[in-house]
Amino acid sequence: MAMPKTVTKVTKDGVKFTSNVDKIQYSLKELKRAALRDCAKLIRKRMIQKLKKLPGMKKSRRIYKSTQYWVRKWEGDLQIGFKHDTWYGSKGELGTSKVKKRGILRETAFENIDEMQRIQGKYLSAIENENKVKGLIDEDEYTSNDKAEK
Questions:
Q1: Nearest 5 degrees, angle CA 101-CA 64-CA 72?
Q2: What is the predicted pLDDT for the residue at 146?
Q3: Are strands 67-72 and 15-19 parallel, antiparallel or unpaired?
Q4: Each residue of 77-125: pLDDT tens digit?
Q5: Which H/E stretch holds residue 124?
Q6: Under a CB-based contact definition with an 8 Å cutoff, are residues 29 and 127 in contact?
Q7: pLDDT tens digits, residue range 41-61?
């Protein structure tokens, strides 16, 4: 969806009253989504760094496909997780009777709270400048790449 136009509501005695409420609401919503997307990229990258330290995972490409994030448009939230039910994924995160609990996703999120707040602050402070907002908002849908990163 493109940014809504400013709508002229009322003309009274030569004075125009314009409403940019729709434009501002759209900008805030998209800035929030963009901030969530960048936070998700950060967490995923740091999580992959930790997963590479596990035995047998140093050169594995599986972790790039199994760690994903979803910025949901209608709910306005972020989900980060493991795609497959694997020993290093959800079983390793929560633990089972055979696999020790590692909590890599949880630890990574808690370790990077300050960084995530800084990222979100950068996006939300941009609301003061309309041109800056347009530069930060990407009109593409926000989902993680399945391509391997290096």
A1: 85
A2: 56
A3: unpaired
A4: 898 888 877 777 777 778 888 878 888 888 999 999 999 999 988 888 8
A5: helix 113-124
A6: no
A7: 999 999 989 888 888 878 888
Closest C-alpha to 116, from 51, 46, 48, 35: 35
CA 88/CA 148 separation, integer angstroms: 17
Q: What is the pLDDT of residue 56?
A: 80
Q: What are the CB-based long-range contacts (under 8 Å, 24+) for 85-92?
A: 86/62, 88/51, 88/54, 88/57, 88/63, 92/54
CA-only gyration radius of the chain, Å: 20
Q: Which amino acid is at 33?
A: R
Measured CA to CA, the distance from residue 92 to residue 119 in angstroms comes to: 28
- How is residue 48 written in tokens? 């992959």
Residues in the chain, total: 150
